[in-house]
Amino acid sequence: MSDKGCCDSVGECFFDYYTSKILVIRSKKVGTLNRFTQALVIAYVIGYVCVLKKGYQDTDTVLSSVTTKVKGIALTNTTELGERVWDVADYIIPPQDGSFFVLTNMIITPNQTQSKCAENPTQASICTSHRDCKRGFNDARGDGVRTGRCVNYNDTIKTCEVLSWCPLEKIVEPPNPPLLADAENFTVLIKNNIRYPKFNFNKRNILPNINNSYLTQCVFSRKTDPDCPIFRLKDIVEEAEEDFQTMAIHGGVMGVQIRWDCDLDMPQSWCVPRYTFRRLDNKDPENNVAPGYNFRFAKYYKDSDGTETRTLIKGYGIRFDVLVFGQAGKFNIIPTLLNIGAVSKNFSVYISVSSQIMHT
């Protein structure tokens, strides 16, 4: 009997049909709350979800490639090198694509040869006798391989003798003002190609309205030439609220930010790059240990008798990193329905709860 009753109950439940009970509340307060909430739903969906957040669109992030080309000439006159003209082959070291380094200052040590000389005085290299200098010792932070002799560095200081490129580079501050002060007038052509693979959309920052004639004479300006992809280095640094000549002494790192935010439901001509600039390295006056950006490189020569010599250059300069960001959106029915459905459900629950509270 119990089994049959259970089966009958299940059968009856299987063919049952339920509907929601509609409760009409005749209340100005509840009615006003209901209409006000409905207005909020409509305003939220249209204003925030659709207009501001573009919830009706599918999105994709940018893929990018960047190449650069720097141009400019600078003239220097130094004791070590005399009067000299520097072109792009001299001050772009090494040639790079997404980032590029521009030489702005240097400490030059000419006519170095493989020979023996007194090490620069440090706590580890100062000596009083040969016993203080271990033969064959190689300090990673030193200047060469020690010969085992303690020799005069000057009239008052003795240091260990080393086998190295002599004369050694002097430990001095970089020149102020910087040697390549004219670098502020150098220009760089930045070529940026972007792609949104989900939408099969490609574009580059040399826009269709730019021709060869315009490109040979334009320089980026937010007021007169906002689409020009050629930038003067001084303008980049100044837009980051920095002084080029001050930064050029010890060097630094600048960021060139290119942002591509594209609404692909609009004409493609509306999808254009936006440029911003900022300094990326630390410039804390209270923590100025090892400031700026520098590295060493050398130019090698051979005399007629086969003796190899080199000119050592400790180069200071500004590295420019080109950083590309962006997001594109295009209408898609799926995110549209999902966003509207989620909003409607949440507000329906809110209306129901609010109505019960007001009725109570």
UniProtKB/TrEMBL annotation:
Catalytic activity: Na(+)(in) = Na(+)(out); K(+)(in) = K(+)(out); Ca(2+)(in) = Ca(2+)(out)
Membrane topology, from the record: Multi-pass membrane protein
GO cellular component: lysosomal membrane; plasma membrane; postsynapse
GO biological process, one term: calcium ion transmembrane transport
Keyword annotations of the record: ATP-binding, Cell membrane, Disulfide bond, Glycoprotein, Ion channel, Ion transport, Ligand-gated ion channel, Lysosome, Membrane, Nucleotide-binding, Receptor, Transmembrane, Transmembrane helix, Transport
A GO molecular function held by the record: ATP binding
Binding site residues for ATP: K69, V70, K71, T187, N294, F295, R296, K314
Cystine crosslinks: C117-C166, C127-C150, C133-C160, C218-C228, C262-C271
Entry's family note: Belongs to the P2X receptor family.
Name listed for the protein in its UniProt record: P2X purinoceptor
Native source species: Cyprinus carpio
